[in-house]
Amino acid sequence: MIIPLALPKGTEKVCELCQKRAYLQCARCRVTYYCDAEHQHSDWIGIHKRICQLLIPIRTPSLFSMQRAGRIENLLKTKELIEICRLVAESKLSEGKHEEAVPAAQACLRCSVDVYGPNTVQLVPAYLLLADANMGMGNLALVAELMSQAEWAVLKSPECGYAVHHRLHRSMGCLHTATGHFEAALFHFANDVRIYFASEEYGLDSTVTCGGYFLMADVFVKQGEPAIVHSLYKEVKCQPTLMLLPESSNIVHFPDNKGQQVEVGKILRSILEFEQDETRKEPAQVALVAHSLAMLSYLGGDVTRVSHLPRSAEVNIRLTR
Length: 321
What we know:
With 321 residues, the chain is an all-alpha fold. The protein has helices spanning 37-51, 55-59, 63-66, 68-94, 98-116, 124-136, 140-155, 162-178, 182-195, 197-202, 207-222, 226-244, 258-277, 283-299, 303-306, 311-320, and strands at residues 4-6, 24-26, 33-34.
């Protein structure tokens, strides 16, 4: 637990979260400041407890830090901070903890600016993390501003890779879906998945690419196009099953990334709910999706979920033994 500490009079510092004038100091690292106890607590929960001590050598001026070897060491430490903040933000986003993801995303962006400078393409992942966090909180105006900054950085760097373009188009698609601009959303999702970027970077059968099909289907759900939704879900349905097969089948192992498991689970449950409500549902489709969800729950240690799945899943599981 961090103990608030009043700053000496005349000390001008800014809050880690909102950049307003700070009046409190982290009592552990003494290099991080806040405008009030609420922001201090939010930052501690969001990211600061993970990086508190790591900030001390980076933010404490010394004769060594001014020398070339010291600058290089601080640069490497700051890059390490970027990676830690990115992973924490992604983990919290996958768990639906959007408010807690904001401090980690902000720290990731701030450190990226320190390393790479402003308006560079290396800032795009941090912009998108911050945009995703605010999307979940409903701050769409701020999301649009962040997306504009990310898009501008990509436009200035035509040499940036497929992964950056994929993430940008997918986030733009999510923003347009949230604001009701469905045709624009489909344009960005199509660029992401069908035309180029996600499939080129990760392959047609990857979880990332299939996630794009799922997002496209979500737009058609909102447009009342169940036949198209059903068709797109067929592009998704095989992926979770493939991920769960052993390596002897020439398929990749199930990933260790907990966040990815959570994301796959969300996709499967949405597909299963749609297919069960669909009047023209295919029993085999329902069984396959339910089977994949059962295996996902089992490998995740949540055996109670398996017992609540449809009877068709139990039949399919017995047939595959």
